[in-house]
Amino acid sequence: MQEQKQVRKSRCSILRPKRKLALLLAFAPLLLSESLNPALADAISPHITSGGKVYSEERPNREFFGNGMSGRLSEASHLRFTGEQAYDDGDLPLALKKLSKAVQLDPGDPTGHFMYARAMTAKINRDLKKGVAIDQEMMTDCIDEWKLIALHDADNFEQAEAKAQWRRLARIAKEMNMPEEEKPSRFARLMGRGRGKLASKEKPKLAQKETDDFKEKENPGRPLNEIERPFKEYQ
User: How many beta carbons lie within 10 A of that of residue 166, not counting itself?
Assistant: First the structure.
């Protein structure tokens, strides 16, 4: 019995290293492809890419971060960190500059796309409040970024925010292309209603006022509650 146990142990000790080696050889191509391809840097959201779009023409800082893909990814991580700080401080031009370069260096990271879209949205919202003309190119880029996140980001919370912002900015862009006489008022835009919806909200109030005026003219000097029932029967 002892000899059989020793034989089994020796066989297991021989098979275990072979299994480990086989697993390493099986997963080696996958690991190498993810490390060399920036579009596969995030395995959870593999379809987040630049799509050939140029986000920034600024050259990578090879003197500080080094050459190769590792240097680009390290610089992108640093830019995302400093860009988020600039966004929190309210320095939107600096945040847009840093985050656009971060997306250019590492287009496979969905966090960079999400932060860049948020910064552009904040800039558009600030211009809307100030009444400043909105940059049409930035509006188009912002809608494209939110659309990319909504369709391909694996984070459910980021997807929900992306869908809401995408629809909202699409409505604003549609209003910008309308003739001046067809645009809804600023009050209606802030309330989230167009002219048609706003008018429909006001119609019942106007109808009630006309009804009260009619009652008062037909029955001068009498309280309205005394003539409410006959008036309903008349209707």
Answer: 20
What's the length of the chain?
235
* pLDDT tens-digit readout, 40-87: 344 456 667 767 788 999 999 999 898 889 999 999 999 999 999 999
More confident residue, 129 or 52: 129
- Cα 4 to its chain centre, rounded Å, is 64
Query: Does the CA dihedral 169-171-177-179 come out positive or negative?
Result: negative
d(CA 42, CA 35): 10
Q: Which residue from 36, 59, 55, 37 is spatially nearest to 46, judged by alpha carbons?
A: 37
For 155, counting Cβ atoms within 10 Å of its Cβ (0-12 exposed, 13-18 middle, 19+ buried), the class is middle
Question: Are 149 and 159 a contacting pair, CB within 8 Å?
Answer: yes
* Residue 165 confidence (pLDDT) above 80: yes
Q: Tell me how far apart the alpha carbons of residues 227 and 221 are, in angstroms, rounded to a whole number.
A: 11
Q: How far apart are CA 151 and CA 147, in angstroms?
A: 6
Helix 68-89, helix 110-130: angle, nearest 10 = 30
Question: Which structure tokens are listed for 56?
Answer: 């920034």
SS3 13: helix
